Amino acid sequence: MIPLVYVEESVRNHPRTESILARHPRASVVPIERYGSIFNHSQQNFRLQKQRPALILANKHDHFVQPAPDAYGVGGDHNWYFSHMLNCLYDCRYCFLQGMYRSAHYLVFINFEDFLEDIDNKIEPGKQNWFFSGYDADSLALEPVTGFVANALPFFASRADAWLELRTKSTQVRELLGHEPLGNVVTAFSFTPEATWKATEHKVPSIEKRIQAMQQLAEHGWPVALRFDPLIEQAGFNDAYSELFEQIFSQVPESAIHSATIGPLRMPKQFHRTMESLYPEEPLFVSGLAQRNSMVSYPAAREAEMIDWATDELEKHLPSSKIFPNLPA
Question: Which GO terms describe its molecular function (predicted)?
Answer without folding.
Answer: 4 iron, 4 sulfur cluster binding; DNA photolyase activity; S-adenosyl-L-methionine binding
